Amino acid sequence: MSALLDSKINSSTFFLTGFPGLEQQYPWLSMPFSCIYAMVLSGNCLVLHVIWTEPSLHEPMFYFLAMLALTDLCMGLSTVHTVLGILWGLSQEISLDACIAQTFFVHGLSCMESGVLLAMAFDRFTAICNPLRYTSILTNIRIIKFGVVILVRSFLFITAPIVLLKSFHYCRPHILSHSFCLHQDLLRLACSDIRFNSFYALALVICTLFLDSVLILISYILILYSVLAIASQEERLKLLQTCVSHICAVLVFYIPIIGLTMVHRFGKHLSPVVHVLMGNIYILFPPLMNPIIYSVKTQQIRSRIQKWFTLNKN
């Protein structure tokens, strides 16, 4: 009876990989990772606070920025307990249900961030290419509709393959490749028929991340075409500067995804540490960098934060 119980417990428990070969350095590694998570949570909360409390920032561009900050904040919250739990020596085990839940949020939030970046590209396209109709096109009602569509697209379409993970039989060693759960990582351990999940996941990536990136690229081609038609070089630079923050956010999001994909596809001979490091960059780099980018590059956000800190000092 005891053996049967142990078997049932083990069949629903997975082992998260930290940094292979660096176990002795976990106390030291925990310090920078703790600082990174603190910056992710505080930085995005600060951006949300500034936008919420400053009436002059209640504009379409900053509403989309608030969506981005909220997405990044949730991404940090969805992985902080497993990553720091490993580095602090608390636990490297995770139940199947908790792993599936984390998988749902990690992939859903990643898809949501891609959708928000696409919406921000549309915002910049409208502001530059059709400035006279900007406020009439991006009304508050339309922005809310954009937000609802992005949310539904991000989480509704991934529900089916994520739910199926619960019914799979995992006969291979329950050792995951990262400090958090990913859909493809669980599929690698399953002995059931995973063809639907594999094809569905590929189709979903093509229809969301790939399509979003193509549409963002097209929007910037049109923006560049419109800007080059302006005679004044000073006006060109001024308009392009309004896009710098968004371009940086797009690069910060897509470069780690491409890097992680390349490592998984062509880096099987690389050290496991490289795979784990790329996975953590994919999860942590965008939420860490986006508040910094928008605080430095967006004059309204920067001046409001400076004013806020000045008042607190006085």
Q: What would you say this structure looks like, in words?
A:
The chain has helices spanning 2-11, 26-53, 60-87, 96-129, 134-137, 140-156, 159-164, 183-189, 195-228, 233-266, 272-297, 299-313; strands at 13-15, 93-95. It has a two-stranded antiparallel ribbon. The model is unreliable at 1-10 (pLDDT under 50). The protein is globular. By secondary structure, the chain is mostly helical. It is built from 12 helices and 2 strands; from the N terminus they run αβααβααααααααα. Helix 2 (26-53) runs parallel beside helix 11 (272-297), helix 4 runs parallel beside helix 9 (195-228) and helix 9 (195-228) packs antiparallel against helix 10 (233-266).
* Strand arrangement, major sheet: 1-2
Q: Specify Rg, calculated over alpha carbons.
A: 22 Å
SS element count, helices: 12
Shape: globular
Would you tell me the structural class of the helices and strands? mainly alpha
What is the string of SSEs from the N terminus onward?
HEHHEHHHHHHHHH
Contiguous uncertain segments of 5+ residues: 1-10
* Approximate helicity band: over 70%
What average pLDDT do the residues reach?
A: 88
Number of strands: 2
Strand-residue fraction? under 5%
> For the terminal residues, how far apart are their CA atoms?
68 Å
Instruction: Describe the main β-sheet briefly.
Output: 2 strands, antiparallel
